[in-house]
Amino acid sequence: MKQIWQALKAHQQAVEHRAILDLFADPRRAETFSTRLDDMLFDWSKTNIDHTARDLLIDLAGAAGVAEKREAMFSGAKINETEGRAVLHTALRNMDRPVQVDGVDVTPALRETHARMQAFVRDLRAGRFTGQGGPITDVVNIGIGGSDLGPAMACLALAPYADGPRCHFVSNVDGAHIHDTLKDLDPATTLVIVASKTFTTIETMTNAETAKRWMAGVVSDPAAQFAAVSTAADRTAAFGIDASRVFGFEDWVGGRYSMWGPIGLSLMIAIGPEAFDAFLAGGAEMDRHFREAPFAENLPVLLALVGLWHNQICGHATRAVLPYDQRLARLPAYLQQLEMESNGKRVAMDGHELTHHSGPIVWGEPGTNGQHAFYQLIHQGSRIVPCEFLVAREGHEPDLAHQHLLLVSNCLAQSEALLRGRSIEEARATLAKKGLTGSELERQARHRVFPGNRPSTTLAYEKLTPATLGRIVALYEHRVFVEGVILGINSYDQWGVELGKELALALQPMLEGRAGTEGKDGSTAQLVAYLRR
Ligand code: F6P
């Protein structure tokens, strides 16, 4: 491993200053450094990765044991070693393939829960399950992190397929969130889903109580319009939710990997069981590809290796996710949790400090909006931000096809501009045509130079259907897995979220004036004094 890392670093230093554009002197460059899965095209040719770098990266994946660990994950081994758990979100989208945890096949229980979800959703969508004021018109999913971001992202992404009740998402403990969401809804025709793996998360439980009070003001039996999604059946019962509307899952489904199962209930309600199954099938298709394709043709492996090249080898700390697809507006936020909660760790599985940086900082916004906001820095800032574009060949609005064309041309223009840049000579020539001369021409020209040679990748797909979304989400999940294995990280725990939770609990009585701030640092004590009610 160490030798491969060193060889990669040495190679990167040797090629750092060459122009990526020159690599296209090879007429087969684009084709060779692209990977396809059916209609999906992942073009990673606009990076500085050449044959040598690619081969070394693939060697790195081999030496890290990606293939062996991949099989361990799919077969139910407890690869989440710090929590002693299997990692089996893949079983949620492939319930026909038996897989054992502690010697027991887990798939019959998955199928049963899935069938119960389908029956409930069908009843609700057909008006057989109603609120106390009539058919359910609105669904409010109360959850946070993995119990919110996945279904919220997917409900927006698949809006063209939504033909059920309207779905709303409340996550923040800030009362403004639930207030603004509930204020226009009718409690008598609203279903509240309390989505929490642990059913202890303070934000979710607080919002759930608020929703219950809101409903109690109007309907006689608020709990009858609540459903729960959790691994903690005892707690959902204590909250008063009837077991017939509780959909359980096991602790081997990580929160940020959980949208495929009961956490996806809101999505199933929005788009219907058939479209939800198509979403699962898309994820399962990516699983098959990930398990079977050789590394050199394996989409998740290559996406991970490109990420490692940019972050750990080239030293670019962030990556921008830039969907040219307004309905993927929540994808960057979803990926922030998926990638940063999974691989944002400086200690390896074996307890030692990492010798490389942990996973990258992930951020982004949909195009073309971002172009009018932060692309300035991406094009002319002093730091390099590898960009990951996503774009569909076809939109869902045939009568607005001309707008889709504009969208796509903007997407391609951005990756081309990042690659090509604009030289000082080109800038001078443009200004000279406008009549500028001398030192003013020179000064102005400098501001108009684009260094170019900035890496990007593009994931293109036919259309954002449920199956395509399933493939995209599973693709990123497996990317995280591969990056985690190569870095030696446990991608499936999240100890880094605990300290803040503990401190918040201790601060509550101080803010209420029931406890003093002795032992707090001066800044925290001052802020408590200011914010205390
Ligand atoms: O605090 C982080 C976290 O545990 C995430 O990993 C998780 O997705 C989120 O909180 C919500 O947890 P739960 O589903 O148990 O409410």
Task: Report on this structure.
- This is Glucose-6-phosphate isomerase.
- It is found in: Cytoplasm.
- With 533 residues, the chain is an alpha/beta fold.
- The protein has helices at residues 2-15, 20-23, 29-32, 51-63, 66-74, 89-92, 107-126, 149-157, 175-182, 202-216, 233-238, 265-271, 273-292, 299-313, 331-343, 375-380, 401-420, 424-433, 438-447, 466-487, 498-511, 522-531, and strands spanning 34-37, 40-43, 100-101, 104-105, 130-131, 134-135, 138-142, 166-170, 190-195, 226-230, 246-248, 318-324, 361-363, 387-392, 456-461.
- Strands 1-2-15-14-12-13 form a 6-stranded mixed β-sheet, sandwiched between helices.
- The longest helix has 22 residues, at 466-487.
- The termini are far apart.
- The structure holds 6-O-phosphono-beta-D-fructofuranose.
Brief digest:
This protein has 533 residues and is of the alpha/beta class. The chain is built from 22 helices and 15 strands. The strands form four sheets. A six-stranded mixed beta sheet has the order 1-2-15-14-12-13, sandwiched between helices. Strands 8-7-9-10-11 form a five-stranded parallel beta sheet, with helices on both faces. It has a two-stranded antiparallel ribbon with strand order 3-4.
